[in-house]
Design goal:
The complex is a heterodimer.
Chain A: H1 19-27, E1 38-47, E2 73-83, E3 88-93, H2 99-106, E4 114-119, H3 132-141, E5 143-146, H4 150-153, H5 160-170, H6 176-189, H7 206-218, E6 224-228, H8 236-252, E7 256-260, H9 264-270, E8 273-278, E9 281-287, H10 288-293, H11 298-305
Parallel strand pairs in A: 3-7, 3-8, 5-6, 6-7
Antiparallel strand pairs in A: 1-2, 1-4, 8-9
Helix pairs in contact in A: 5-6, 5-7, 6-7
Chain B: H1 2-12, E1 18-31, E2 37-50, E3 54-59, H2 65-73, E4 80-85, E5 94-95, H3 101-110, E6 112-115, H4 127-137, H5 142-155, H6 172-185, E7 190-194, H7 202-216, E8 220-224, H8 228-234, E9 237-242, E10 245-250, H9 252-256
Parallel strand pairs in B: 3-8, 3-9, 6-7, 7-8
Antiparallel strand pairs in B: 1-2, 1-4, 4-5, 9-10
The chains are: A alpha/beta, B alpha/beta.
Chain lengths: 308, 262
């Protein structure tokens, strides 16, 4: 199978991946392969010493994610979900409910305490168990991340084109002309004027910084895009353009997207399915229209009824 | 009453010809934010819909009609009962109450369409693109899809200068027509209609009725209507709901009388 390094420029397939996707499917996750682009099971992350009572003493039933016995913080526990190619999965919940922890673990920004995750395009098993070199490959070739804070996703002292080139170089692109061409193409797609390619992200507006982040995340045609509160803090007209861009990506790629937000309007607009988190646990999962119109869990009802 | 319905169900049944079978379906809402208050949606509803049949549901506001339709589409989760969907004679039926979210999403793409009463307009998408979208999802090219969409808009008498405008700026009636066109263009095998003509004037209603009659041959439809003249024109069978129960079923003539009969 040819999923490792050295795929470089060959992986550049532009729009619909079609046949390539099918090929990947057959070599994908082995026994875990039922078509999902991403499958997560039992993901748990605990900050602190942790004790045998941590899981039992926290969660929505206790109204807290801090263990009363040892004081550890259970950021998320027993999180399981899957995302199909081309699908957008929404994750909603209040601040501190563990939303970001999930995507940070999936992008290897932090290590989970336990749990498994499988990518369809990456056939070497649980991605949390592989070597750090392998993790680097997964990060560069198969996943893309957009952070709420652009300072985490971009290097502000490198040009916007350079930021994208960094991701391409990591995927073994070597031809400078083609790297520039690809960076230009991505900036164009995310509606950044080409003239700003050699400008620094620190000189960009918040909305433009988010779009450069998206361009960077898209650089290697990832199979899974992780979007963490990507419109939070932007004014509504800028939000609208970013959301339209995400819809455009959905139409033109097969990328599976995990969309974290506390904005139910964003969920309604983009996500087919939604999971609701409280105190680090999934309290409800379902079709987005069902979550919004017939919420089952008390917390989801509160959330839906709190919309202004 | 229930045994009567059951009897009816088996007498009229032609094996293999049912498109949807609903058996003893119940729905209550538990409102935790109001101290666990229970609100009745509907109880003990059973009926069958044959392939190609047009079933109208009538009854007063709050009688559970919309809840029933939303349970079929899985916007609501029923408490108990069965909803058996028969994709075709060579396939096993699917119980929509137990189907996974992925299965329901797949069915929504090709099998079951829904026209909402609430006219939710997706922001920043033009009327043409709203209607063309289901076609694009099935792989039609942009130009072809927009052509077909334009045809629908013309037929539904939406002024041409609105075609490239956003439906969020449209009147209620215009939006409802865009919604209907989007549902019809998807040519699902089953269409759920929640008061599709409620915001329309008589002229637009007549056009919509004509379009519904055209797709009737290849589409099974379940529709909620308040306008009984529409029911007389399109429905093969009528279900009457009252106080969250199904109280009567029969032909439009039997239920509504034959004052304008055909």
């Amino acid at each position: 199978m040819n999923c490792g390094v050295g795929e470089g420029e060959g992986k550049r397939t532009g729009r619909k991946k079609g046949r390539e996707m099918e090929m990947k499917m057959t070599i994908g996750m082995g026994e875990h392969d039922t078509g999902q682009a991403l499958k997560v099971s039992g993901l748990t992350r605990i900050y602190g010493s942790s004790c045998p009572d941590c899981i039992r003493m926290t969660g929505p039933d206790h109204g807290t994610n801090i263990c009363r016995v040892c004081g550890s913080v259970v950021a998320c526990a027993d999180i399981s979900f899957d995302v199909m190619p081309g699908e957008i999965l929404g994750i909603v919940g209040e601040s501190g409910s563990g939303k970001s922890t999930i995507v940070r673990c999936l992008y290897f920004d932090m290590e989970p305490t336990c749990g498994e995750a499988y990518l369809r395009c990456y056939g070497k098993g649980n991605i949390f168990q592989v070597s750090s070199q392998e993790k680097q490959i997964i990060r560069n070739l198969y996943t893309g991340m957009v952070y709420q804070n652009p300072q985490l996703g971009l290097k502000f002292d490198i040009t916007s084109g350079g930021n994208i080139a960094e991701k391409l170089l990591a995927a073994n692109w070597r031809n400078v002309g083609r790297i520039r061409e690809r960076a230009g193409e991505l900036l164009e797609r995310t509606e950044i004027p080409l003239a700003r390619m050699d400008d620094y992200p620190r000189n960009f507006s918040g909305g433009m910084q988010q779009r450069v982040q998206i361009a960077k995340a898209l650089a290697n045609d990832p199979d899974v895009l992780l979007l963490d509160e990507l419109t939070t803090g932007l004014d509504v007209s800028v939000q609208a353009r970013i959301l339209d861009l995400i819809k455009d990506i959905r139409r033109n790629t097969e990328a599976a997207m995990v969309l974290i937000t506390h904005d139910l309007g964003v969920i309604r607009l983009l996500a087919e399915r939604t999971i609701v988190l409280k105190n680090g646990r999934i309290v409800e999962a379902g079709l987005t229209d069902q979550i919004l119109e017939d919420p089952q869990h008390e917390y989801t009802q509160l959330l839906v009824n709190s919309v202004l | 009453m229930n045994t009567n319905l059951e009897k009816n169900r088996f007498e009229h049944e032609q094996p293999g010809n049912n498109h949807l079978e609903i058996c003893n379906l119940n729905k209550t809402f538990t409102v935790h934010v109001s101290g666990g208050k229970q609100i009745m949606g509907f109880e003990d509803v059973s009926f069958n819909v044959k392939r190609g049949e047009f079933l109208a549901i009538i009854g007063g506001s709050g009688s559970g009609k919309s809840s029933l339709l939303k349970c079929i589409y899985r916007t609501y989760i029923p408490d108990s009962g069965l909803i058996l969907y028969h994709p075709g004679p060579e396939y096993q039926p699917t119980d929509l109450t137990a189907a996974t979210d992925h299965m329901i999403l797949n069915m929504r793409r090709s099998e079951i369409g829904y026209v909402s009463q609430l006219l939710y307009a997706v922001p920043r998408v033009t009327a043409l693109d709203v209607i063309a979208e289901p076609l694009l999802m099935r792989g039609m090219d942009q130009a072809g899809a927009r052509d077909i969409a334009a045809n629908y808009l013309a037929r539904l008498c939406i002024p041409e200068d609105l075609w490239d405008a956003y439906p969020s700026t449209f009147s209620g009636g215009e939006r409802q027509r865009v919604n209907i066109a989007r549902a019809l263009v998807a040519s699902s095998n089953m269409l759920l209609l929640d008061e599709p003509t409620s915001a329309l004037d008589p002229a637009s209603t007549a056009i919509v009725v004509e379009m519904l009659r055209e797709v009737k041959l290849k589409t099974t439809m379940i529709g909620i209507f308040h306008d009984l003249s529409v029911v007389r024109e399109v429905a093969d069978r009528v279900i009457v709901m009252k106080n969250n129960r199904m109280i009567k079923t029969g032909t439009p003539g039997e239920i509504l009388g034959s004052s304008t009969g055909d």
